[in-house]
Specification:
InterPro entries: AcOrn/SuccOrn_fam, Aminotrans_3, Aminotrans_3_PPA_site, Class-III_PLP-dep_AT, PyrdxlP-dep_Trfase, PyrdxlP-dep_Trfase_major, PyrdxlP-dep_Trfase_small
Bound molecules: pyridoxal-5'-phosphate
Number of strands: 15
Largest sheet: 7 strands, mixed
Strand order of the largest sheet: 4-10-9-8-7-5-6
Keywords: Amino-acid biosynthesis, Aminotransferase, Arginine biosynthesis, Cytoplasm, Pyridoxal phosphate, Transferase
CATH architecture of the largest domain: 3-Layer(aba) Sandwich
CATH topology of the largest domain: Aspartate Aminotransferase, domain 2
Subcellular location: Cytoplasm
EC number: 2.6.1.11
Number of domains: 2
Oligomer: single chain
Family: Belongs to the class-III pyridoxal-phosphate-dependent aminotransferase family. ArgD subfamily.
């Protein structure tokens, strides 16, 4: 099967919600992947910040194979040890005093957080929640009602929840919107889908203070930002502003579907028996994969590695002068090339032609979220190729 064959079959059988991707990937090794025509790429997007250990990592492959052979599924009718170990591990990494709900995706992790927020709000006369313009929290109707991007909200609204949107990064706007009637504030520590947009320094600390002063829950959506992406386990640790609820997914499973919602302190027991559930949540294969990811990050020092290689990547990009390129933003191995105009699709295509997979996350921003195992030399190979990639994009657009 070639790229062309698979693209045409894809186009015929799937709903048209994604558009037809440019190539089909068939295998990977470390940070490299190969398409159906045999072309090799350096994977600088990692399945949207998911493939934290890269591709074909022996620890992940062994953990999944062994658990699948031993017991692939139990449901929540029975205890399975990998899920217990994963939950204990997440609580310990987050500093203790928390409980966990395991889900299968980011959206579901946010649905759990939202239901906790709604239950808290009903108990305390807090009928609304606050979220941010251009924020992204997922695609189910609950998570979508928190998502601040009009083009993906409007076709499906109105929504059942009262969600008030504030401009991201503006602490005064947040202070004005959050009263003692507010149940929860949903925030990404850096907005991912908006184009890896960090807030001004101190924003997360300010949000913590605003929530403490009013009694609103601070919910950190760290689905994209956690598990080493910024050089820390969790991005909230950079400002030491621990949220009340924390949602995780993407990089946690290293490619296996797993999500988690952590609730701290008194909120850890807001859900009572019967309040929530998931047939697949806590699946032992997914939990074994996540444990392999966490063990490997710890054993191989990948937090410090992601911070260091991320700096190499960013300084290499910053050193490039080109009319299409305005700069670079983000932290660790989570960056965006900021463009001077709407050339991101052309840059993405030119990069692919040059052997690099990147993501045109916005018209004027190209996202990089490579595996945490990306080497220095691999980062430099991209920045060395970047001027020619931008030239090619300029010619094409
Ligand atoms: C990807 C993402 C989600 C949705 O996760 P899915 O696994 O696609 O459901 C939610 N919030 C943020 C911040 C994300 O980046």
């Amino acid at each position: 099967m070639t790229n062309a064959d698979l693209r045409s079959r894809f186009a015929d059988v799937f709903m048209p919600n994604y558009g037809v991707p440019p190539v089909a990937l068939v295998r990977g090794e470390g940070a490299r992947v190969w398409d159906a025509d045999g072309n090799e790429y350096l994977d600088l997007i990692g399945g949207i910040a998911v493939s934290s250990l890269g591709h074909g990592h022996p620890a992940l492959a062994a953990a999944v194979a062994e658990q699948a052979a031993a017991l692939a599924h139990t449901s929540n009718l029975f205890v399975n040890e990998p899920s217990v170990r994963l939950a204990e591990r997440l609580v310990a990494l987050a500093g203790g005093d928390a409980r966990v709900f395991l889900a299968n995706s980011g959206t579901e992790a946010n649905e759990a957080a939202l239901k906790i927020a709604v239950k808290y709000g009903k108990a305390h006369g807090r009928p609304y929640v606050v979220a941010t313009e251009n924020g992204f929290h997922g695609r189910t109707l609950g998570a979508l009602s928190l998502t601040g991007k009009r083009s993906i909200r409007d076709p499906f609204g109105p929504f059942a929840l009262d969600v008030r949107f504030v401009p991201y990064g503006d602490a005064d706007a947040l202070r004005a919107a959050v009263t003692d009637q507010c149940a929860a504030v949903f925030l990404e520590p850096t907005q991912g889908e908006a184009g890896v947009v960090p807030p001004p320094a101190g924003y997360f600390t300010a949000a913590r203070e605003i929530c403490d002063a009013t009694g609103a829950l601070l919910v950190a959506d760290e689905i994209q930002s956690a598990i080493g992406r910024t050089g820390a386990w969790f991005a909230w640790q950079h400002e030491n502003a621990r949220p009340d609820l924390l949602t995780l997914a993407k990089g946690l499973g290293g490619g296996l579907p797993v999500g988690a919602c952590l609730a701290f302190g008194a909120h850890a027991t807001t859900f009572a028996k019967g309040d929530h559930g998931s047939t697949f949540g806590g699946n032992p294969v997914a939990a074994a994969a996540a444990l392999a990811v966490l063990d490997t990050i710890e054993r191989d020092g990948l937090l410090a590695h992601a911070a260091a290689v991320g700096d190499v990547l960013a300084s290499g990009i910053a050193a490039v002068e080109h009319p299409l390129l305005a700069g670079v933003r983000g932290r660790g191995l989570w960056r965006a090339l900021v463009l001077t105009g709407p050339s991101a699709p052309a840059v993405e295509a030119a990069a692919r032609d040059a052997g690099f997979l990147v993501n045109a996350v916005q018209a004027d921003a190209v996202r990089l979220a490579p595996p945490l195992i990306l080497t220095d030399a691999q980062a430099r190979s991209f920045t060395a190729a970047l001027p020619a990639v931008l030239d090619a994009a300029q010619k094409a657009s």
